[in-house]
Amino acid sequence: MNTLLLDRTAWDLVLDASGNIAMATNPYAVAQDVASAIKLFRGELFYNTLPGVPYWEEFLGHRPPLALVREHVQRAAMTVPDVASATCTLTSFTDRALAGYVDITLQDGTTQTVSF
User: Fold this and answer.
1) What pLDDT does residue 112 have?
2) CA dihedral sign of residues 40, 4, 11, 114
3) Which residue in 42, 64, 84, 87 could disulfide with 52, CB within 3.0 to 4.6 Å?
């Protein structure tokens, strides 16, 4: 699976050496798509408002149980094609900032860690 390569800091498109929009390939493409799925607010995708994490409804302005947060992040990761399993570990949830990582296993058995 290929996906558009995004700059890790700005989360914006990157150009390759020829000036074309750069593409990412597996396994990095899957890891990047998992990060995008975790960053997606439910309702933000204008052509399909169902995918995404319910940040507005359940996280922001609330203090949800950490198990619920982990479950939503894992579900978001599992929406990405080629992801066989996902395990979320939260490292910080203070001052309205959520941080952690997701260990994903791809269909071919390789593993990746995606930080957020």
Assistant:
1) 96
2) positive
3) 42
Question: pLDDT tens digit string along 3-49?
Answer: 999 999 999 999 999 999 999 999 999 999 999 999 999 999 999 99
Question: What is the side-by-side order of every strand in the sheet holding 83-94?
Answer: 83-94, 97-106, 111-115
Q: Which pTM does this prediction carry? A: 0.90
**Rounded Cα distance, 20 and 67, in Å:** 42
For domain 27-115, which CATH number applies: 3.10.450.40, 3.90.1170.40, 2.40.50.140, 3.40.50.720?
3.10.450.40
